[in-house]
Amino acid sequence: xxxxxLVLRASLPDGSPVPVSPHPYTELRPPWVIAHxxxxxxxxxxxxxxxxxxxxxxxxxxxxDLQSSRxxxxxxxxxxxxxxxxxxxxxxxxxxRAELQAFDAAQHFVDASGKRSLRGNGIRIxxxxxxxxxxxxxxxxxxxxxxxxxLVARLCSLxxxxxxxxxxxxxxxxxxxxxxxxxxxxxxxxxxxVAEAAVFYARxxxxxxxxxxxxxEVLIVPVSVLGFDxxxxxVLRAAGRLGLRTLVFTANSEAQMRALLEAGADGILTDxxxxxxxxxxxxxxx
Length: 286
Hints:
Helix content: 25-40%
CATH topology: TIM Barrel
Mean pLDDT: 90
Number of domains: 1
Radius of gyration: 19 Å
Low-confidence stretches: 1-15
Structural class: alpha/beta
CATH class: Alpha Beta
Shape: globular
Oligomer: single chain
Number of helices: 10
Number of strands: 13
Distance between the termini: 38 Å
């Protein structure tokens, strides 16, 4: 894919690469079922247990978060601490990979019946390498946190070593993180940052959409933006003209999912990929 990357991207004045042709990550036919944290409404979030079941339920993309262990291993966990999802206490960064994986990552998960039925079953915090290698055909979306510039080189190296540059996308709310990643790993798809997306969104809503190639392949917007529909037709049209996939977060009710699909969203992040796949299938049923 390295040669492809040279064709794929040009460069902005600030050094950020710019996509100039479709990235393989975006070639999947929409709408996409994106399992938010692996489908945290159904299974213990950000675990191999959840990812396996999300894919079996028809998810197209596994969405997850990254933190670093004390021994610099990329761990798949949302919070900076282990307290909320495991039986441990303390900052992720204080523990080694082995110590983190000794915790029970299903300790606080409550199932549909209100029970903590999955604790004690060996469900643990995975490494990113375990996820990428364990699901070799899955598209993966990784969100980087504000402190993540320190992780950029390791993330880029892992993606390249796994040959996963055509099936991974990196997102972040923070422009500086994404700029650093795009420079380090120009062959990998990224989302627009909040600042980049806000400018794009505002121009599209005001009727002055940008004609410049975006520095990313994906536009991620919340269900509503400042009281407006995040997938307004003008935004979708502007994104489509520039080859951006528009993904919306986070929809968990059938009514909300149907409305977003009807509006033309390319993908939906959801805590319940089972429900979203069912809704899509019912819409497209013969």
